[in-house]
Amino acid sequence: MKVMPINNFYTTQYKNSNTQNNKNILNPYTTNSVTFTHNKGIKNLSKTFHSEIKIFFSDVDGTLIGLNSFLPETAKKGLDLLEKNNIPIVFVTGKSLIVLKNALKGVDVPLSYCILQNGACIIDKDGNKLYEDIMPKEKVSKIIDAYKTYKQQYPKEEIYLYFTIDGIRYTKKGNNIIQNEDIHYVENFDDILSFDKMPTKVLFRKKSSKGFEEMYNIRDFLTNTLDMEETNVLVTSHKSCEVVNKTASKGAAIEFLTKHLGIDISNAAVIGDAENDIS
Predict the structure, then answer these.
(1) Contact criterion met (CB below 8 Å) for 152 and 128
(2) Hey, is 220 helix, strand or coil?
(3) Using CA atoms, how far apart are residues 51 and 250, in angstroms rounded to an integer?
(4) pLDDT digits (tens, 9 = 90+) for 113-158
(5) Which of 47, 57, 205, 228 could make a disulfide contact with 270, Cβ separation 3.0–4.6 Å?
(6) What is the DSSP secondary structure assignment for residue 153, as one 8-state letter?
(7) Burial 240-249 (b: 16+ CB within 10 A, else e)
(8) Alpha-carbon radius of gyration of the chain
(9) Cα–Cα distances in Å, from 11 out to 6, 14, 31, 35, 63?
């Protein structure tokens, strides 16, 4: 399986200079316009992969949805074209199902399966979990300690911490900057450790950012602080850095789902725009 740069098959309208020179990024583009080049796009896609495309996986933010948070008409046409060719569409995202559904309001595409939380959770169309990669309590404790240490070293930085458990985000009271989402609160971050179930994902979110470089600095701090043999630290936007288990990735989830469906991985097409799409 290989993740495709979005500009190979879709139109892109502008570059993100902050990612252009970072070799970890799949390509230097973000997009506000995602579309097949013409009506034979499916055929061209298959030709490029040298095999028939039987399932289509797509990242959401920056790939299908542009920086204005709306799905452009060109992207809808591409999704319609896939549907007409009876090719299942699977959204692959760092979001939870609740947030994904809100982001895709008005998108008339049947959800067969979704890969959520950067591969830490896979659900079917009825919301049943096929797979979930939960963090051990010891790792969650280390992440909380790392956050406290970072805040001590950089007290002026406005960075916030969120834990995703069963698709719901938890944070400390007075800590929230995410709007239009039902956030659950705890008195202190350490209270998370008393929960019966641990998170599948932890989000470090900045209130404002001048670019990706600020998040790379946070990623490097976490990389040097946490046990990287057991942990993935991913920059997912210019304001967000996410932590999941090492075994959780979009690529691993795609391999799991294609095997579950009896589809050879060579017949899967995948598109994405950021480093969490490379796995």
Answers:
(1) no
(2) helix
(3) 21
(4) 899 988 899 998 888 899 999 999 999 999 999 999 999 999 999 9
(5) 57
(6) H
(7) bbbbbbeebb
(8) 19
(9) 8, 10, 8, 6, 10
